[in-house]
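LOG
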Amino acid sequence: MRAIDAGILICGECHELNRQEPDSNSQTCTRCGAIVHARRPNSLTRTWALLLTSAILYVPANILPIMTVNTLGQGEPDTIMSGVITLIKFGMLPIAAVVFIASILVPTFKLVGIGLLLYSVQRKQPLSARQRILMYRFIEFIGRWSMLDIFVIAILVAVVNFGRIASIEANLGAVAFASVVILTMLAAVTFDPRLIWDNTESDDDHE
């Protein structure tokens, strides 16, 4: 049985349980005074907007150079994939694997995963609610690790700055990639996971 079926609203700020007031268009939390809703307003619309924007930016994030390493006045810009290939050529397989997973696989999984959640909820697809909620929690968990490349680039730009001898510059690809990561994290936040259970047809999923 869902909380909404019992006439209970959960505050999104302090998580206080509030008894739903009949015939009330706007209700505030009895503890913190925040406005409470049965479900986050326009959750699907906002999540779709953030997801589509991040999907558009995902293209330049992988096509544009993410950073340029200059040595003795010469340097060649690298995209995420070309950087992975360079690391493999130098025998740095563990680092290449970490960069590939954090910068290629994780963002791709997040985009596809959130898209599947939104589609399954809107179209009421006969999918297991337990599987969908596990996917949602996994997306939330791995979201922060996508920033690994950005943190590394920020550190390298600050530390490696020896004029014409050696320097590292961040390129537009880094900006696009950081935008993708931030937008997908926001998409996971704006998505209301309670909608998953609202669209569950099987009673077993509510046990």
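LOG (cont.) second protein
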Amino acid sequence: MKAIIFDLDGTLVDSMGYWRSVSRDFMKTKGIDIEDAVQHKMTTMNLDASLKYMKDYYKLEESFEELFRDFSRTVEDFYRNKVEAKEGSLEILKYFKDRGMKVVIGTSTADHFANIVIEKYGIDKFIDGLYTADSVGHLKGEEEFYLSIADDLGEDPEEIFLVDDSYLALRTAKRAGLIGVGIYDENSKDTWPTIVEENKYSARKLIELKKL
């Protein structure tokens, strides 16, 4: 294998619980309870897309600009002051980097928020690039997201691992030809059996990826 793409939220940093709660809490202020299916769908979307999706799906009266302003303030505070790196994240990034593989992050999180946490924990020292839905121009739910990264890295999709906690992202990456590696996250434990069943590789701890 020539390269490995790591998801950020729920994979390298422990933030999926926050994303679920902040979305639910935000919508509860509008008298709406978000269904689990909607939550899972939004894991492959960037902030713009998820807000537009919720606005359309729940027919919210506020403008997109108002929703984005209110929501992004809370998100930035979280990434600056509350998010924590997952156990073994830096060690596993260094491990693959030392093996001569191209190590990058592929995330739905906006560049601004992703860079806050990447720099905060020194993740930037062990990666060769950051690819977001914004920078790539495709959502993680689209095969083109992964194909574009593969093209930029100059590697065949079949020579690239994707490490992710989202079964939807893993499914999409597999359709694009990548090798999916499921990683456990407590906040998506309901889909863990599906991840294990559908992917050749899976691990409960990041450090276990050394067995790949």
